[in-house]
Specification:
Blueprint (H helix, E strand, L loop, with lengths): L3 E3 L1 E5 L9 E3 L8 E5 L1 H13 L3 E5 L2 E5 L2 E2 L4 E5 L3 E5 L12 E6 L4 E9 L16 E4 L13 E12 L3 E4 L6 E13 L33 E17 L2 H6 L5 E17 L10 E4 L4 E6 L2 E2 L1
Parallel strand pairs: 1-9, 1-11, 2-10, 2-12, 3-5, 4-6, 5-8, 6-9, 7-10, 8-11, 11-13, 12-14, 13-15, 14-16, 15-16, 16-17, 17-18, 17-19, 18-20
Length: 298
């Protein structure tokens, strides 16, 4: 049974994991009635988990209204059956930034498990600035003299996505994402959007320019990965209507500058032999293997 997050997951310069200690958000004041904003309580549980050296933050059954919370290093966020996190519609609950519930920066070893991610339709909901990615991970150099962060050991396990926009996970040539794992990911394309003018999210002030602002975010794929060293994909299913497949011919998974990868069980439905874009595409990538996947292009 999936748990729902009506928002996007955004991860900027960070990564993922889990340990034995468990922290229940109810113990930190979360109500879960769909009316009380539980942002502070959920943040308190995350902070306590980090202070203890890492562990698992558990969100029990209930409907949790939440703004942006910062996920520290060495933390696994897990929603139990019957738990829903609904993103607040109030801009002030996001600190003036994009409508992102789980946000992490300069962190490592973080995992997201047993979640459903549904993006809002910006045309139908305009009182919050919405990101157009169900999952967004990025490393960037904001200024010429800035240090470049690292992303290591990032896991998405048993994730259900309903969105018209694609996932983007990208590192940099000088700082590749290390050890990325996608397991049991299902992606239901609701209403596909046009990628031709899409740009990656840039929050705050930045003085540098980067081709990655638009290069990979516009690739014809529903899950796009770039500059990754150590990739494991085990189960990625992308489904849509036949009309959506014809409207925008896109791969289920594409990888660019990916080293040392193992990919299995990737499918795009419905199958249509007239579609020219393969289900799996790898370009400018190193050694790896692909098994039990439809239509692979390397």
């Amino acid at each position: 049974m999936y748990r729902t997050i009506l928002a996007v997951l955004m991860l900027l310069v960070f990564s993922v994991s889990s340990t034995a200690a468990t922290f229940d958000v109810r113990d930190y004041g979360a109500v879960g009635d769909g009316k009380v904003v539980d942002t502070q309580a959920i943040q308190a549980a995350l902070d306590a988990c980090a202070a203890a050296g890492g562990g698992r933050v558990v969100i029990p059954p209930g409907e949790y209204l939440c703004g942006r919370v910062v996920v520290p290093s060495h933390v696994t966020v897990e929603l139990q059956a019957g738990a829903t996190i609904q993103g607040s519609r109030r801009p002030e609950d996001y600190g003036g930034g994009p409508a992102v519930v789980f946000y992490a920066r300069d962190a490592e070893r973080i995992a997201f498990q047993n979640m459903s991610v549904e993006t809002y339709d910006p045309a139908g909901e305009t009182n919050v600035e919405h990101g157009m990615y169900p999952i967004f991970v990025d490393i960037e150099r904001r200024h010429e003299d800035s240090l470049v962060g690292k992303i290591r050991d990032l896991t998405f396990d048993t994730i259900d996505i309903a969105s018209g926009a694609g996932v983007l996970i990208q590192g940099m040539p000088e700082s590749m994402i290390e050890n990325l794992r996608l397991r049991g990911v299902s992606f239901r394309v609701t209403k596909p959007i046009d990628y031709s003018d899409r740009k990656k999210h840039i929050g705050g002030r930045r003085t540098t320019r980067d081709e990655r602002d638009t290069l990979f975010v516009r690739k014809p794929s529903y899950v796009t990965l770039a500059y990754v060293d150590g990739l494991s994909v085990d189960g990625l299913q992308v489904s849509m209507t036949g009309e959506a497949l014809k409207l925008y011919e896109r791969a289920a998974l594409s990888g660019y500058f990916v080293n040392s990868f193992a990919v299995r069980d990737v499918a795009r439905a419905p199958y249509d032999e007239t579609v020219e874009v393969p289900a799996v595409v790898f370009r400018e990538s190193g050694r790896g293997f692909v098994a039990d996947c439809e239509e692979v292009s390397r």
